[in-house]
Amino acid sequence: MSKNDFDEYEEEVIEDEEFEEKEEATGLAGVFQRNAPIFAISAAFHFLVLFIISLIPTTQIAEEEVKMVITDIVEVEEVEEIEEIEEIEVEEVEVEVETETETEEVTESETEIEETLESETDAESEEAEVISEAPPADVAGEMMMMGISGGGAAGGGGGMPKGYGNRAGGGKKAANGKYGGDKKTMNAVDRALKWLAEHQDKDGSWDFAKYEGHEGHGAERTAITAGAILPFLGAGHSERVGNYKKTVKSGIKYINQQIAAKGTHFGRNYGSALILMALAEASIFGSSSTTEMNANKVAEMFINGYLGKNMGWGYSGGGTDLSVSGWVALGLKSAKAAELPAMKSEKGKEVWVKYKEWIGGSATCETSGFGEYHGRAVGTGKGTPHMTWVGMFQRQILDFPSDDMFLAKASEHTLGWVKGGKWVGTEKMGSIYGIYYGTLSAFQQQGKLWKTWNAGMKKTLIPNQREGSTKELGGSWNPTIDSTGKYGGRVLTTALAALCLEVYYRYDIMH
After folding, report:
1. CATH 1.50.10.20 is the classification of domain 138-506
2. Residue 386 and residue 392: Cα distance in Å, rounded?
């Protein structure tokens, strides 16, 4: 529009305003009839359009309304809506990114912990969890019956036999924490198991002669293989569940093959007792009918070789050797828990009762609180720590009461021996035989004795475990200077040390 045109338009508007003021009294109708201004015509036009729209069908109305709403809103509301949407989208993206980051961190952390417990530990983690794979459908019901899938309480919880309820699942973790185990003990056990698994021969056995072992004194390849399997079973690994199913299965298979070829007696009764323990415990946790049959054969051999009242066992049959008797009785205890036919027989029951009488009346002395080979020191006050601990554990698995006079006196002796630091509590390891039975008996006794012993046992065993790769010597223990270490070598020493560190969940409190 030119300047002249704008001036003309401005003059018209002024004239219209003056005219409206003059004609205001005549009414709005007159104004429209004579000369309606542009804005009045526009208003009338809009009213007319709205009226027409109200008569149009709904579909068209909706379309027109949408167009008109958009037209009337102009730019302001559109800008506001876009800004709001953009802000919401930004917030959602930030939340999603944060959530993914947190999830990844947790997953990586849990994986690192599980790998540590499985390779260098569990716990448990577990620990840890020991049972890392779902059981096959055909054994799920059996596992539930045995309590493997969830762990049990003391005294055979979860369907497990009395004394064996805490080896896996939640029961294992709870018992480990309750009785003084920790991450260091779990790590040490898992490293020991890894070392043993990696040094098992292809036929399922352990050639202990490669690792400072020597034939003799009950040490024999089949027996040492049984001893090496025990810590796997003690930590909840069996032929059916756990990270070491193949290790246990091939070891048990080797033992069964040797029994088929050679019979049930391997070296001295020490060796056969270890074999009975391994086969019986494998049966408890789910093995083959062959395993159960062979375990029963070994149990029958010990029962038939028992000579009568006031007796235990010796190197090759019945006798009065408390050391040999301790191993045999623990094997029969496992056979009893596995409900083997030999232990249900009248003769089996009779042997168990008579053996209990011998332990309470001759092998250990309530007056002195000592135990000794062949009862030589009963009543003399000249008992040895090793036989005292074997005697304690025999009374405990035979259900003598915890306030038994012998157990009370033997506990006092043990506290004094621990303070002397000859077996546990020092940097140098004492006899692995003594540490093993001292750990078992102190754990069953609990109280001040267990707290003192446990602290000393961990202080000695954990630092003495070899560092480095488990493909070499890492995870094992050097053989101790005693008969067990000398003949059983690194394999049996490592197995027994691992069993000591499994004590928190391997056996429940049994008396």
Report:
1. yes
2. 10
